[in-house]
Design brief:
The complex is a heterodimer of chains A (750) and B (168).
Chain A lengths: L2 H38 L8 E4 L4 E2 L7 H10 L3 E2 L9 E5 L2 E6 L2 E3 L2 E3 L2 E8 L2 E7 L5 E2 L2 E2 L4 E5 L5 E3 L9 H11 L11 H14 L9 H9 L7 H17 L2 H11 L1 E5 L2 E4 L1 H9 L8 H9 L4 H4 L5 H17 L5 H9 L15 H12 L4 H6 L3 E4 L3 H25 L10 E7 L6 E5 L11 H4 L9 H9 L14 E4 L4 E3 L2 E3 L10 E4 H6 L3 H11 L1 H10 L20 H8 L7 E3 L4 E5 L5 E4 L4 E3 L3 H16 L5 H4 L7 E6 L6 E7 L2 E8 L14 H12 L15 E6 L10 E6 L10
Chain B lengths: L2 H16 L13 H7 L4 H18 L3 H14 L4 H13 L3 H14 L4 H18 L2 H14 L4 H11 L4
Classes of the chains: A alpha+beta (750), B mainly alpha (168).
Amino acid sequence: MGKRGKDRLRAWIILLLLGGPILAVFAYALDSAYEVTSRMTGRTWELPSRLYSAAPVLYPGSTYPEESLCAYLRRLGYQPTRRRPVETGLFSAVPGEVEIGLRAFRDLSGDRAAERIVVRYSDKQITRIEKGDGGEELFTVGLEPEPLGEFFNSKRQERTLVRLSEVPQPLRDGVILMEDRFFYQHHGLSLRGTLRALWTDFRGMRVVQGGSTLTQQLMKNFFLKPDRTLSRKVREAIMTLVAETLYSKDQIFEAYVNEIYLGQQGPASIHGFGEASKFYFGKPLALTTLGEQALLVGLISSPGQFSPYNSIERARARRDLVLKLLLAQEKITNEAFASALRERIEPRGKLGTPDRAPYFIDFARRELSERFSTDQLTQDGLRVFTNLDVDLQEAAAISVTEMTKHLEARVRKLMKGIDPSKHLQAALVALQPQTGVIKAFVGGRDYADSQFNRAILAVRQPGSAVKPFVVAAALSPKDGGTPAATAATLLDDRLTTFAFSGREWSPRNYEGQYLGEATVRTALEKSLNTATVNLAIRTGLPSVVELMRKAGFENVSELPSAVLGTIEVTPLSLARAYTPFLNGGLRSEPIGISAVVDASGHRLDQRSGKVERVLSEEVSFLVTNLLRGVIDRGTAASARKAGLDGDLAGKTGTTDEGKDSWFVGFSPSLLTVVWVGFDDGTPTHLTGASGALQLWIRFMQKSRRFLATDSFHVPRAIVWKEIRREKGCVGSGEQLREAFLPGTEPSKCR
Amino acid sequence: MPMNRVFALWMVFWIGGCAPIKPAPSPESAPMSEIIARESSDPRRAASLRMVDAARTDLEAGRLERAAEKLARGLEVDPGNPYAYFYLGVVRFRANRLEEAAELFIRSAGLFADAADWRAEALAYRGESFERSGKIPEARGAFEEALKADSVNQRAREGASRLAGKMW
């Protein structure tokens, strides 16, 4: 190679040696710029989606208890006060009267302005609701829904966004003074601060000091791991310069007040002043006092150290430091300073109660995942509205916890040798049959112990809980003609061997007891197996199976054992199947979520109940009327002995050896299904009556005051007749007032 | 025949032939406040009716889903409110969920114990639901039932006429 060639080669080598790193730096800077812009423009933060309960509706005549109203307000973060008139976010309760400073909020109906109302009670009933100013009467008032839980990604960041205009001025001043006094003058990097920090680091031979501007802190919070390395500082510096170039100071400051880390609640980190004010003071940022704002500012440098939950003294000292700085810089007056110093520090806890319904949240998540991706759920800040009633949910959760313990103790007494690590489980689903909305939902005894959601995943045999469908098929007129039976029809109830498709089957009654003969009513009230099979044969098995399929039972075979419940259901599917009995013969689809709204208020999803005809209105009432007897006289009579009054109906269900204990119980406005058993099918020897029914009774005792007391609607076409109870015909003897379709009433006894 | 008698007969036929039975206005046109006042002795029914009233406003504005929400809340407060079922049926009807609409209308008709005009309106809507679904025999049956409940129900009369092949 000649000299020229060597020179050229040398030049190329130099170019590559220098150009490579320059290109690399350029690419690095471009990448940083891209990260900054993609984070600062459009969706800046990852906001978890929030799930909300149904909101109580107050109206004159409602029996919503006064103490429940106060408890609900507290959970929403309303603070009790003695001062009247109350301010927004506060409530004042004296016997017979609750005054509430309702906050502005946005629910499914739209934006609601803040207002003050007075709710008056007398004899455990709301007698009047009026506006706080002027006394104008209000006839219905919906409260805010309660947050039930959130959908986080792995970062688990809690955040409530605020606009810069919503940040109180003293707080803005405090942040600037404490963290970056020359924020509005510098260009992102503080040369003095950085050099000072580097010198300190160099002397200490490790990176120890910050020296960061607000912009640098923002970049650190946005992207970077908390490790303090030189490379991280370089990247942070590049990103800071990019941000300062592309965005205004106010934009950067707004991002900062929403991003800054300010505390920890369990696994979830608290980001931004909007969330922090709720976390520490239980109120929106706009309602914080000067002292509270100073405390929040003081948290920035070390939330753990200065959190009032950890040390009131340290929090106070830090707060006072911020206040002194504000006074020294004439950002606040002497009077305001003195008043803020006198404020008591009383951390009040986070708004809402996380994970009140963990199994329901799981169920909701499953429903949502059919329509939304995980990223949308965990980052887009969606608001998911449900109809879950928090009072009924609490009653359900407590009942499941208490009764499974109690029942397990009984089971262990009855059956020695059960593995001590095995625990009796339960599930409870309560829904409003007219609309299908789920009001309470428990999928197990302890979510922390087992997340298996039995309410929707435990596929079990329902046993006798399917018998009402056999009766419904029997009572339904065929092709406009006469039904196969009425409530008064006598059925054979003796040990019988049935032959089907070359096989033999001898169903047995519970404890081998037979009545010889029994009316359809008695057969259902006492859950007589043989009589029920006879009824199914009389009706025609295909008719029974067809009705069961219409009711929503799946994989129902045309085998006689199906009429005794040898099919598979989940608690939720069984609840769905029973809805026609309370809804004029219409089956309602269960609904967990009613609507999904994005951060801007646009509806992304809306669910509304679908209904489908299963039975006639008249037959559905006839069956309900029979099921009243199950509670009044039959296998669930212990409900009355326990003091449950009112118009109630239900059906017990038990499988072999008590592997499954079921109870379906309902009032006109609430249908509840309870299942009790071991997950692995270990026998419990609990019947529906000794197991699931007891749990239902406990649930009803706790929730009764929240439920309307009304009666089952009687269709106009129903005819009533006094008949002999045991014989099902008209004559003397113990009488029973029975319901019939017109023209099917029984005649005189022979 | 004397002319005065002829004239009298002519007047009878003229008045009789040209004075059709005046169809009744739809019960939906009645303000809900009247119904609320009538049912105010039951506070749950009254509260539920107010929600129905609010739902009617949404319905008139075409906000079907909001109307459905309010009606569902109304049913939570009072599960036996026939007006809530009725308007839920109207929501489904307008959303072209005709089978459901037909079921909701028959449900509401069953609950309108003493309100023959509303029962007829519900049955007439049921007839229209069947008609739109192409179920003509069922539609005819529903219109006939509506007219039995209230012979001057306009919706039922028009429906029956359409299906009979002529308009009055």
